[in-house]
Design goal:
heterodimer; A: about 650 residues; Flavocytochrome C3, Chain A, domain 1; Methane Monooxygenase Hydroxylase, Chain G, domain 1; 5-stranded parallel beta sheet; about 15% strand; B: about 260 residues; Fumarate Reductase Iron-sulfur Protein, Chain B, domain 2; 2 domains; 7 strands
């Protein structure tokens, strides 16, 4: 198969002109809908995290009719809320050399030259508007004594461009967006459907005509028609079962869209976050992230000697290996996430791991406490230290934290063009649910930036370019037979799952599936391992179909049934993830293929054959999807080997 | 290092629906490590229930990092259980001892009707926010973020209030089922900031009055502050009351001028 031929089906619709002018050129030439006509359009927004809430609120402010859907009890529960560290913006408030171009370049480089240049430049451009917008809405960002906004530095950057609100930046930004959404709900401009889950996407004559949902309170399956649908439904990190994602995070909305024709791009690009609390037991339900900002003051080390079980305080300085500082002197403990994660894995694989299960590395604050005093450290990280102590029972002011990498974020997602439209006309994907901006690896504090960029400053512009053609034309409503057909399929599916009378609950299968994906498609991948995964996952899926047990019935609130359906979608996603990882015969960003590394163990990219987006088309067999290629053409930047030494 | 807890008796509230009659079901956990979180214990119990053909216990939870505010649970009569400043999802079994009996109930407040088992409906909180818990600043056209300096102590005080996770423990702990801590936290967050001044008095009046439609009245017991996983201070209630009184005068004056 030739790897470099562009698929004619994938048109990125990148505007003309130099990279720095593309967004302005788009806005100058796009079709608009006049204010009085906006109310004639219905837009469905699924998901109420940063991307979904900001999109729903802004679209409603503009005058569109908006229906917002969340499977939570309240829009404020979305997992954006758990982001700790901060949000990047090229404000250059420090005067330390930042600019739109530098944020653009850092993001491209951080993504290991696997993202679309035009999208990333736009992201860097609108980053400055996000901070203005969030401050106007009352987000209490950290301030200096003079009243100006404070910044901190983050991995993968040499400037301080990260804005933060203690260790709860995601919470404050999400609440800001939620409050804008709440205002629109109160005004009657947005109808909110809470505790309602998307279970399928409906297409009629090649365009997205609406969605089918299931009311989680009573199991009722219902159709909703609209002019356009936005999926802002987050990432699929829970494919690994153990991840830093919230328990309910899932791929169902994106996967159901994929099954209906939306291509899924780069599913193998998953981010493993280096600073999580190591697993303590087999039944553990999730892993907890300790913000990357801790690496500003903490030093990462392991004992030089393998199998060293001495207490950390008993290991003398010259018997410790501060391996990040040793290997990457210019970035040190702030090396990007993928690089730090793999270095930790190498140390643990060498037997230098620490803690009761020898499955972690130290993150030590002794020097910072000595230099700054415990009070300053408490001011900066107090809530994180408290959280660590609650979970582990150890006091990080006295003993070093133990950390280990865990699945955290997924760069892959639904393929979208420059306008954030998927391969199904009228169906958009925003935030973590799309693949667009982070390439093969996301920099810290950039997820919040992208979610809000998509929702506040991109979709509200791009969506009119599609809607304008439907002005005063009729679109199919829910009486169209296609809605009835899709509804019936959804009912049958939930009926089948609810009647499963095997021996094991959905969590058991999800955990076993996660182990396979983590072992073979986690931090390090090999051809043999991926081949193995591609036979083990379908076998386990067979077992799932045969041996799943769901109690509680089809109707009424049934969390076991919800989990069963989401787990089923993770099975198919896992197959396509492994296929993507197998076909990408190079190492880049979060995708590390052991066969492709330098002598020093660093990722070996292959720009000649793999500088492209792999967009997968569903074929009915998730292990054998059809590959479509979008070549990545760089006009502004040139390929460089990523080095953080 | 971890130790194993033995022979825990769980008494769990089960209720089939909003109008069903409730009951306590008793389950015995033979062994569990103290490294387990409280909700992981319920996960394990649920897996066993499903394998035995019984219905899993319904409970709300999501992030398990103490920030999304989804988890609830009255544990031995205390909202979020025995550990200070800790949401249920961050509570670990090391806070319990072998042989303990643990009573697990949903939030108890008439404004939070029971949905099923341990899950309640907290949407009245959303109604309060919708009535004024925002700063009107439509997307686009916001001035530069550093245009209006916010003194650090003000930003810090606003952040102390803004930390509220909307879990509802304050309401569940309150003998009156009042939501004054929740409502005042949002009002204080926005009313302290310079950006929030334009709508300050309208906001407090609207939010307090929406709150009163759903929730009981505050009589300064202070149980809310003790139960709050974010340790939000009842000083916020004083700020709210002060602004509400001023609003009653100012808003009437403003009305008389129109």
């Amino acid at each position: 198969m030739s790897m470099t031929i562009a698929s004619p089906v994938l048109d990125s619709k990148t505007p003309d002109g130099p990279v720095a002018d593309k967004w302005d050129n788009f806005k100058a030439n796009e079709k608009l809908v006049n204010p009085a006509n906006k109310r004639k359009f219905k837009i469905i927004v699924v998901g109420t995290g940063l991307a979904g809430a900001s999109a729903a609120a802004t679209l409603a402010e503009l005058g569109y009719q908006v229906d917002a859907f969340t499977f939570h009890d309240s829009p404020r529960r979305a997992h954006s809320i758990a982001a700790q560290g901060g949000i990047n913006a090229a404000k250059n408030y420090r005067g330390d050399g930042d600019s739109v171009n530098r944020l653009f370049y850092d993001t491209i480089k951080g993504g290991d030259f696997r993202s679309r240049e035009s999208n990333v430049h736009r992201l860097a451009q609108v980053s400055v508007n996000i901070i203005d917008q969030m401050v106007a809405q009352g987000v209490p960002f950290a301030r200096e004594y003079g009243g100006m906004l404070d910044n901190r530095s983050f991995g993968g950057a040499q400037v301080s461009r990260t804005f933060y609100a203690r260790g709860q930046t995601g919470q404050q930004l999400l609440l800001g967006a939620y409050q804008q959404l709440a205002r629109q709900i109160g005004l009657g401009n947005v109808r909110l459907f809470n505790r309602t889950e998307l279970v399928d996407v409906v297409t009629v004559d090649g365009r997205c005509a609406g969605i089918v949902t299931r009311d989680l309170m009573n199991g009722e399956v219902t159709s909703h028609a609209a002019h356009a649908v936005v999926l802002a439904t987050g990432g699929y990190g829970n494919a690994f079962f153990l991840s830093t994602n919230a328990m309910a995070c899932n791929v169902t909305a994106a996967w159901r869209a994929h099954r209906r024709g939306a291509f899924f791009a780069n599913p193998c690009y998953t981010q493993i976050h280096p600073t999580c609390i190591p697993q303590s037991d087999d039944f553990q339900s999730k892993l907890t992230l300790m913000s990357e900002s801790l690496r500003n003051d903490g030093r990462v080390w392991v004992p030089k000697m393998a199998g060293d079980t001495r207490a950390p305080a008993d290991i003398p300085e010259d018997e410790r290996d501060y391996y990040l500082e040793r290997l990457y002197p210019s970035f040190g403990n702030l090396a990007p996430r993928d690089i730090s994660s793999r270095a930790a894995k190498r140390a643990v694989d060498n037997g230098q791991g620490v803690g009761p299960k020898q499955n972690g590395v130290y993150l030590d604050f002794a020097d910072a406490i000595g230099r700054l005093g415990a009070d300053v450290v408490r001011e900066r990280y107090g809530n994180l230290f408290d959280m660590y102590e609650r979970i582990t029972g150890e006091n990080p002011y006295e003993v070093p934290m133990r950390i280990y990498p865990a699945s955290h974020y997924t760069m892959g997602g639904l393929w979208v063009d420059y306008e954030l439209m998927t391969t199904i006309p009228g169906l958009y994907a925003a935030g973590e649910a799309n693949f667009s901006d982070h390439g093969a690896n996301r920099l810290g504090a950039s997820a919040l930036m992208q979610g809000l960029s998509d929702g506040y400053f991109v979709l509200p512009y791009t969506i009119s370019n599609y809607l304008a053609q439907w002005l005063n034309k009729s679109i199919p409503d829910t009486s169209h037979p296609e809605f009835a057909k899709v509804e019936a399929e959804a009912r049958d599916r939930y009926h089948r799952l609810a009647s499963s009378d095997g021996t094991r609950g959905p969590d058991w299968f999800h955990r076993e599936l996660g182990k396979i994906i983590w072992d073979y498609c986690g931090m390090e991948r090999t051809e043999a391992g991926l081949d193995k995964a591609l036979s083990e996952i379908p076998a386990l899926y067979e077992e799932f179909r045969r041996d799943l047990k769901v109690t509680g019935g089809e109707f009424g609130l049934n969390q076991t049934l919800e989990k069963a359906a989401r787990t089923e979608d993770f099975f198919e996603l896992g197959m396509t993830m492994c296929r993507d990882a197998l076909e990408r015969r190079e190492s880049c960003g979060g995708h590390f293929r052991a066969e492709y590394q330098t002598e020093e163990g660093e990722a070996l990219r292959d720009d000649e054959n793999f500088a492209h987006v792999s967009a997968w088309e569903y074929t009915g067999d998730a292990t054998q999807p059809t590959l479509h290629i979008e070549p990545l053409v760089y006009e502004e930047v040139s390929f460089q080997t990523r080095s953080y030494k | 290092m971890s130790t194993t807890l033995k022979n825990l008796t769980l008494k769990i509230w089960r209720q089939d629906g909003p109008n069903g009659a409730g009951r306590f079901d008793t389950h015995v956990i033979d062994e569990i490590t103290d490294e387990a979180s409280f909700l992981e214990m319920l996960d394990i119990l649920n897996e066993q229930l499903i394998e035995n053909g019984d219905e899993a216990v319904v409970f709300d939870h999501d992030c398990r990092e103490g920030i999304c505010g989804t988890c609830s649970l009255m544990i031995n009569g205390q909202a979020h259980g025995p550990e200070r400043a800790t949401a249920t999802c961050q509570l670990h079994m090391r806070k319990f001892s072998s042989g303990d009996t643990i009573v697990i109930e949903p939030w108890r407040a008439s404004a939070f009707p029971i949905v099923k088992d341990l899950m309640v409906d907290r949407s009245a909180f959303d109604r309060i926010i919708e009535s004024g818990g925002f700063i009107t600043a439509a997307t686009g056209g916001a001035p530069d973020a550093n245009l209006i300096p916010v003194p650090k102590p003000v930003a810090d005080a606003a952040m102390d209030a803004a930390q509220c996770i909307g879990c509802g423990a304050c309401v569940a702990a309150c003998p009156n089922g009042a939501a004054n801590l929740f409502t005042s936290a949002k009002i204080s967050h926005l009313n302290l900031l310079p950006q929030g001044q334009a709508e300050r008095y309208q906001r407090v009046e609207n939010m307090v009055e929406t709150m009163d439609e759903y929730f009981g009245s505050c009589t300064n017991h202070g149980e809310c502050e003790a139960a709050c996983p974010k340790e939000i201070s009842i000083d916020m209630i004083a700020l709210m009351n002060s602004d509400y009184r001023k609003a009653k005068v100012k808003n009437r004056k403003a009305l008389s001028r129109t």
